[in-house]
Amino acid sequence: MSLYLYHLTNLFIVYLNFLQTFSLAGLGAGATEAVFVNPFEVVKVSLQSNKAKSSEVPSTWAVTRVIIQENGFGLKGLNKGLTATVARNSIFNMFYFGFYHSVKGMLPECENPYTEFFKKIGLGFISGSVASCLNIPFDVAKSRIQGPQPVLGEIKYRTTLNSMAIVYREEGLAALYKGLLPKVLRLGPGGAIMLVVYEYSHKYLTEVFK
User: Fold this and answer.
1) pTM for this prediction
2) Cβ of 111: how many Cβ atoms within 10 Å?
3) 159 in Cβ contact with 97 (< 8 Å)
4) pLDDT tens series, the chain, 210 aa
5) CA angle 127, 85, 37 (to 5 degrees)
6) HSE of 121 in the Cβ direction (CA atoms, 13 Å)?
7) Interatomic CA distance for residues 105 and 88, integer angstroms
8) How far apart are the first and last CA of the chain?
9) Which candidate, 7, 17, 47, 101, has a CA 20 to 30 Å from the CA of 166?
10) Pick from 150, 48, 145, 43: which is nearest to 87 by CA?
11) What is the DSSP string of 133-199?
């Protein structure tokens, strides 16, 4: 029994090392990605919240110019909601890559290629789905900060945690998970497809160019 516990403890330590390595790498990748994509998120949300007819909606570059002219490049302008975007992307990538690669590394490779394929699909789906559940409150906060404010001329949603607190206080816990189902339906299968295509593409290209 003591020998079994010893091996189980060692296995758990190895798993934690795997998880820590891939999770930290995912966190760094998510944070870096967020810094570069956030300006595009601000413009996208501005375009999506425009209620004018499609023929009257200004172009992407026109909206970008207006944002820069009115509020500049800072946290009130083209980088509005940066903290929320960093938190959203970091949390997603941290779990997404950390869980998938650490669990995949702990499981033995299946001899049957179809079983191995569906094992990876299942791990990718779980990774994308759970990561979506973990980061959606930050996604909601990002949308509130970057989107149109309830009262014209007044900024209600400023910081990430403050925006989440306001949503929770005024609309309840469920409001922090608005859009969860379509997000899971998009990022669950999408996450599985992306990781599996990467895995098999990498394996194929490695064999071709070795």
Assistant:
1) 0.86
2) 7
3) no
4) 455 565 556 555 555 665 678 888 888 999 999 999 999 999 999 998 887 666 677 888 999 999 999 999 999 999 999 999 999 999 999 999 988 988 887 788 888 989 999 999 999 999 999 999 999 999 999 999 999 998 888 899 999 999 999 999 999 999 999 999 999 999 999 999 999 999 999 889 998 887
5) 95
6) 8
7) 26
8) 46
9) 47
10) 145
11) HHHHHHHHHHHHHHS--SSTT-----SHHHHHHHHHHHH-GGGGGTTHHHHHHHHHHHHHHHHHHHH
- In the chain, the amino acid numbered 60 is T
What's the CA gap between 27 and 20, in Å, rounded? 10
What are the tokens at 168?
């929770």
Taking a C-beta distance cutoff of 8 angstroms, is the pair 23, 94 a contact? yes
- Going by C-alpha positions, the residue among 147, 143, 138, 39 that lies closest to residue 92 is 138
Task: Give the residue carrying structure tokens 């938190």.
Answer: 87
- Take residue 86 and report the two structure tokens written for it: 């960093």
